[in-house]
Design brief:
Length: 371
């Protein structure tokens, strides 16, 4: 079987979780005998990491990184390469509804009668649609043109409800994101910090979390700091500046540290040493950072805007509302936790992470591709 993945970002792109998720998926499928080809863009790919505008083998995966200019919102080189190779493929996997080459890929797939799987990856959530008329209209166009012939991929039950809302009776399946679990780093228990890893963007609700830290008497009186590891995109610079102002206003200077973007082994060590990791977004279709933390044995506090109720069920963290008061109460609770209770929670975190090992679950994806 030949699978073509068309996506804006693919590893080693540093933008967003899907670039890594699809890389792990492609590697696991390759190990099962699936011929995987990826056509993607140079967007956020570090200089000199890979060659652009030529076919390369990336861990056995055929990948073409097309050079794109910021002014080219259509990413025309991606579409051009897709048109050359789509006729030789059996299944097409698209990683975004609103990435413009996805639309043109669907048109060509329809002409060649190819099976298409579309992964919205949170793009249908209210926070993403955001009452924008163009997005709503565009999704209606997609439904009319491709809805009946397309198979949709949801990463959670809640995402499937939005797929049904916009695409009616279209077929869909639910599979969480899977990843190649990293080796466990040796933990330094003498690093008293709480952690957030991810984009610094309004949807992540970092302002709510900062307010909660200011409310939490236990945090203020403790030796703990709050570390934020993530880059700032130009479009969110104003939000970042507002966080700096808020930190000063809440008198949290010296208790909050911005680390910038952290990757690789350094990020794994950062997770391992953290006392607790946070994902308190307004909404998330999944949240790879949760698995990354759990895989290092670090419990997670996630908001109810994320699909992580299993944190409560497995006693591997907490699933709470993301208002400041609720978060502050949770922070107080974790900082007062007995050592034996905390160690048990770390063990539960490791067990929960195993459920998302891509190699253990790849048969589910193969079933979807072959169905």
């Amino acid at each position: 079987m030949k699978l073509l993945i068309v996506v804006r970002n693919f590893y080693p792109s540093t933008l967003g979780g899907p670039s890594l998720t699809l890389y792990w998926l492609a590697k696991a499928l390759l190990n099962q005998g699936i011929d995987v080809t990826v056509i993607t863009s140079s967007d956020h790919v570090p200089v000199n990491k890979v060659a652009f505008d030529k076919w390369i083998e990336l861990d056995g995966i055929h990948v073409y990184f097309a050079s794109v200019e910021e002014s080219d919102s259509f990413h025309c080189p991606v579409t051009k390469m897709m048109k050359r190779y789509i006729k030789d493929m059996d299944v097409i996997l698209l990683g975004s509804l609103f990435y413009k080459p996805s639309f043109f890929t669907s048109v060509w797939a329809k002409l060649y009668h190819k099976k298409v799987i579309w992964s919205p990856r949170g793009e249908l959530f209210p926070a993403a649609i955001n009452n924008k008329r163009f997005k709503t209209f565009y999704v209606k166009v997609l439904n009319k043109l491709f809805g009946k012939r397309t198979l949709f991929h949801a990463t959670s039950e809640i995402e499937s409800t939005y797929i049904k809302q916009y695409f009616g009776e279209a077929k869909y399946y639910i599979l969480p994101n899977y990843m190649t679990l990293p080796e466990r780093a040796t933990r330094n228990p003498h690093c008293p910090y709480l952690l957030f890893v991810g984009r610094i963007a309004p949807i992540k609700a970092l302002d709510k979390l900062l307010e909660a830290l200011a409310i939490s008497k236990k945090f203020r009186e403790s030796g703990y700091t709050f570390c934020i590891a993530g880059g700032v995109e130009a479009q969110f610079e104003i939000y970042y500046q507002s966080l700096l102002i808020l930190i000063s206003k809440l008198q949290l200077k010296g208790k909050v540290e911005f680390l910038g973007s952290i990757t690789g082994k350094k990020k794994e060590q950062l997770y391992a040493d953290a006392y607790m990791s946070f994902l308190v977004s307004k909404s998330e279709n999944f949240g790879n950072v949760v698995i990354e933390a759990l895989a290092q044995g670090t419990p997670v506090i996630a908001s109810k805007g994320t699909p992580w109720s299993s944190l409560n069920e497995c006693e591997a963290g907490f699933w709470v509302s993301n208002d400041s008061q609720s978060l502050a109460m949770c922070i107080d609770e974790i900082l007062m936790m007995q050592p034996e209770t905390y160690q048990r929670m770390r063990q539960n975190a490791l067990k929960l992470a195993e459920n998302f090992d891509v190699e253990r679950n790849i048969s589910k994806w193969i079933h979807v591709l072959e169905s």
